Amino acid sequence: MRKIERFSVLEYFVRSLFGILAIVLLSVIMLIAAIFLLSDQPLTSIASFFAGPFSSLYAIGNMIDHAVPLAIGAVGIALAMRSGNMNIGGEGQVYAGALVTTIVALALPGWGLTGILVALAASMLVSGSVATLSGWLRERWNVSDLITTFLLSNIIILVVDYMVAYPFVDPQTNLISTRFVDPSYHLLIILPPSQLNIALCIALVCVLVAHLFLYRSRTGFELRMVGDNEEFARYAGVDHRLYRILPMTLSGALYGLGGALAILGTYHATIKGFSAGMGWNALLVALIARFKPAAIIPAALFFAYIDAGARSAMFYSDVTYEIAYIVQAVIFFLISSSILQRIALGRRRV
Amino acid sequence: MTAAVRMKSITKIYPETQKRANDQVDFTLLPAEILSLAGENGAGKSTLMKILYGLISCDSGEILVHGQPFAHPSPIEAGKRGIGMVHQHFMLVEEFTVTENVVLGEESTAPTGLLDRRQNRQRVAALIEKHHFSLSPDDRVMSLSVGQKQQVEILKMLMRDVNILILDEPTSVLTQLEIDSLFTTLRKLQSHGVSIILITHKLHEIKNISDRVAVMREGRMVGVYETAEVSEEDIARAMMGDEGLSVVRKERRQLNLDPVLSVAHLSLIRHNQDHPLLDDISFTVHPGEILGCAAISGNGLGQLESVLLGNLPVSSGEILYHDEVLTSVHHTATTRKRGIPFVPSDRLFTGCSLSAKVSDNVIATSRKRFFPPFNVSRKEIESYTSHLIETYGISATPSAPIGTLSGGGIQKVILAREIERIRDLIICCEPTWGLDVNSTAFIHRQIVQLRNDGVGVLLISSNIDEILALADRLLVFSRGSVSARFSASQMASLTKEELSPFLLGKKRMEVEGA
Ligand SMILES: Nc1ncnc2c1ncn2[C@@H]1O[C@H](COP(=O)(O)OP(=O)(O)OP(=O)(O)O)[C@@H](O)[C@H]1O
Ligand SMILES: [Mg+2]
Fold first, then answer.
1. Whole-number CA gyration radius for chain A
2. I need a labelling partner for B225 at 20 to 30 A (CA). Which of A165, B106, B175, B271 fits?
3. In chain B, whose CA is at the least distance from the CA of A15?
4. One domain, residues B155 and B298
5. Which of B372, B397, B421 is the last residue of a domain?
6. For residue B36, how many C-alpha atoms fall within 13 Å in the half-sphere facing its CB?
7. Are A127 and A96 in contact (CB under 8 A)?
8. CA B336, CA B280: separation in Å to the nearest integer?
9. Residue B25 belongs to a domain with what CATH number?
């Protein structure tokens, strides 16, 4: 008995790993094919794409730094998805988190660590509330969270754009941007000269805590129960209404945290549209990781690698950044189709 | 004469569990015969039929359909060869109407290419009429009882002109009347040349309907008999090997304790229904007794279960656990929050989470015990699950998804889980749905044991044999109200024949009390 069991768990693991590797491989092949089609100097392009992100400590650090908000956002998505909720309003929630942090930092200059904590808490509160609203709307009136998160996010983006362009704009620069936060708010750089900072540690902690929460706590267990089969969860006495709201709150708060850390660690000011794509990309990372916290770190790094590769290829050869979108689209397509398949199979097995 | 189906040396090992579900199985189906496929839970019956239908592939072996090799089986290919399968577990679109489910894939379309709703509806209505099913073409599947859903599955096959029909435990959820009409349908199909494979655990059905019976045990085919030449005991012995049949003994007990569960004047009224779904229901369950509730499906048992589960708010009346109100007009049942053990009739979607591990399913109703509120090691969970698996004789591993167990295996896990948490009350709805003779006897022994230990048991079942075998007192439901009550002394001599006019609503008792 025991032996069979171990064997099969291992086999499961190998199989799912194999599936992911196959997807990664396929998308890399597509990428190379695209470069051959689009570039006049395909070999240079390929070299700069794959090697570029590793060319210096600076490049490596920045690549990892880019993965940080994605990973944090993805943890939030994973919590929402595992409980059967949807939060696709990441774009707005990240952006809002960034602006709130900036405002707090500008309002409380020189507060240092306390200020940082206040700023992070405020961001999580604001973004978390926005997502909570969507959860509540679904709980109360069965309004689709898919739609409300998305629409709310669009509104928020416009509001933040306005705030950045008018009340908080820094007249000293040509960018549409707020003023820079003072250096007491800058997170500690851990790999100079790159921008990699201790936000990385926060991301790792988030992943670890989310993993323990999901698999080792009663609340996490109930959350997964509701996501797997709400009918069963209700039968088992789980307060399913709580789990339409709580995971949304958590995912919103984590998006907010991602945005806030991007400001304090990397950008130091809210520049109009600076976070565009972060929300969607975090969703993609969560999908690649199949909503398993432990898989989010490699997924986020892979994603950041593709992004950095495309930037480097764009810089050193004649391809454009859009090449990254091709890879992302291929991955997205393959992953989501296999997820759909799994959902279909899961319902049909027995 | 070429056989309708010939399967040679079929072997199937499930990779997830390394379970040899079929081991060199040979199987033949003759033209226009009704063949019963029998075997205990987990014997591999569903697996063999899924292979024939092309749902899963076998590791080795050969299949011939009407003498032609069936080399690349898939459900689509099977459909082309005229093979149809009604699954043990329904495969219906809950949100669709009966008509939409039945015509799915075979829709009539208007010349514009759009669905011809009226035409579709008429085809389905005609079919329902012809086979005397108790369905309306416009009902949404999610509002149907389990028995009615089964009928929809059968309708789907009838719509498709199959000549080889596989029915995986079609009768386990049907009432006697529905079974009779199903059998009439099957005989009619047989006379039109359709070959039928019927999986069932009920021995008298095997005797009643089939020409031959094939018996499987632990993945092997252990014998094929002409039904007329074997007795029910012979079949049972072939299924179980050397283990004997066990019988449930009831010893009557004297009761004079306060009730554990009281239901008082419970009514459920819906405006779109011409009669109340539940009409002034009152009863009590005392410690140390089994109170049976029997009815033909669609007569209120389903609603009673939903109310007890807290899925339906009541229109009046209340439910008490000792002195504590579980349900009233103002709030729906807290049965589950109070942790009262409950075996639901819908084991697949209410009673478990198919994609979750067996162990997670087992601890799902004892969350406080295993996560107080954190638990860093899963060891305790695994060992508790292993313990249950062993005690209840379930063939499973704790870490496998529960969806990979056989139908009976899932039911046993649910029962084990609920029985282990018992204090003084358990509510069991259709507890032996789809269980083989042996497991049924096992479950019945468990239920009787609970009662002897002083637990109050509310047994809601449409299986009349089960009710007669177990219940100390009995309520009969018809059209949402109680049509008869039988006291302990009356139960001793009660027969099926005496019961049936009450079940059918032709007779009503004007007695109070119980
Ligand atoms: N998808 C699966 N993955 C792994 N093991 C499986 C799977 N399906 C069935 N099994 C195992 O194969 C064995 C045979 O299962 P099968 O469903 O064929 O039994 P059955 O004879 O139909 O039983 P029942 O009467 O309970 O429905 C069981 O031990 C079961 O646990
Ligand atoms: Mg079966």
1. 21
2. B175
3. B16
4. no
5. B421
6. 29
7. yes
8. 23
9. 3.40.50.300
A344 — pLDDT class (breaks 50, 70, 90) = very low
In this structure, what token pair is assigned to residue B156?
A: 């789907």
Q: Are residues B499 and B356 in the same domain?
A: no
| pTM beyond cutoff 0.90 | no
Check residues A15 and B28 and name the one with the higher pLDDT.
B28
Interface of B with A in 76-95 (CB under 8 A): 88-89, 91
Same domain, B412 and B460: no
A228–B356 C-beta distance less than 8 A: yes
- B365 with B409, same domain? yes
Delimit the domains of chain A by residue range. Answer: 1-39+321-350, 57-318
- E-assigned strand segments in chain A: none
- Tell me: do B50 and B181 sit in the same domain: yes
Residue of A7, A228, A237 with shortest CB distance to B353 = A228
Residues B206 and B250 in one domain: no
* Complete DSSP assignment for A39-79: -SSHHHHHHHHHHGGGSSHHHHHHHHHHHHHHHHHHHHHHH
pLDDT digits (tens, 9 = 90+) for B388-438: 999 988 888 898 899 888 888 898 999 999 998 888 899 999 998 777 877
pLDDT in tens, A80-126: 999 999 999 999 999 999 999 999 999 999 888 999 999 999 999 99
- CATH fold for the domain made of A57-318: ABC transporter involved in vitamin B12 uptake, BtuC (1.10.3470)
Number of independent structural domains in chain B: 3
- Judged by a CB distance cut-off of 8 A, whether residue B282 touches chain A is no
| Domain interval for residue B204 | 5-240
Does B368 lie in the same domain as B333? no
Clarify whether residues B137 and B92 are in a common domain: yes
Q: What percent of chain A has pLDDT over 90?
A: 60
**Model confidence band, residue B513 (pLDDT cutoffs 50, 70, 90):** very low
ipTM of this complex prediction, to 2 decimal places? 0.80
Reading the block at residue A167, the tokens are 């009340």
Q: How far is the CA of B89 from the centre of ligand 2 (A)?
A: 9
Mean residue pLDDT across chain B: 85
CA B343 to chain centre: 12
Instruction: Please say which residue of B365, B398, B421 terminates a domain.
Output: B421
Nearest to A303 by CA among A73, A17, A8: A73
Give chain B positions within 8 Å (CB) of A218. Answer: 367-368, 371-375
Q: How far is the CA of B150 from the centre of ligand 2 (A)?
A: 15
Q: What is the mean pLDDT of residues B84-100?
A: 85
